[in-house]
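Q: I'm writing up a methods section and want to include an example of the input and output format. Could you take the sequence below and give the corresponding predicted structure tokens, formatted cleanly so I can copy it straight into the document?
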Amino acid sequence: MDLGIRNRRAFVCGSSQGLGLACARALAREGAEVWLNGRDAEKLARTVEALRAELPDAVIHAIAADLNSAEGRAAIVAALSELDILVTNNAGPPPGALEDWDEAALAGAMNANFVPAVQLIRAFLPGMQARRFGRIVNITSAMVKSPHYMMGLSTSARAALTAISKAISREVVADNVTINNILPERIDTPRQEFMARRLMAQAGISYEEARSRAASTIAAKRYGSPEEFGDACAYLCSAQAGFISGQNLQLDGGSYEGLI
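A: Here is the clean output for your methods example:
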């Protein structure tokens, strides 16, 4: 299927690795002109170089900027006068418990997993509406719909983004601008390596056992692949997805136990 996004301009937040990179790769493969982003300029440059080697016909750029700062977001907006596709993504706070969630921790979570996405949406949405094409995809978490205690801080900030995006989506879909969220669970990225090593230290088990325990919590009994995740993102950004907006797509191996 031709997704109809060849030569569309796409910016993917936090895309030097992991889920963001998976989305950037899928969009570049479909012919979109893609800007990758990360805080570490050297790491970002290596990622872009590798992706260009993998996809020699793709048009790929880099914007090294910190999403968590107003200055970083201003640099992103200044570098991109027009944008057709925006994929928001950012690392979440570490797991914790109520005693860890002081005012600074709460503000930090919102300043990473809520404020940057909303400010970028504010910056690029009017142009999308004027050109009558826009696709916005927020990478959130399966725990937005199934909160777990230790991830409560991350879940809360991402739930706030989900709510404001739903509110905005109804106002802009008539202009062919869609806003959707992807809710991942156990996609095989560096984040899962971090979580596996955390479990190793807590339970005194091997890395292989930690990964096996994590995979066993998924109904599909395996990790999701970055390619599966990236392709789902690319479809939500496609011309064919114009009638899908304000939705939460769970990529969780069938693990969600709810009906809706």
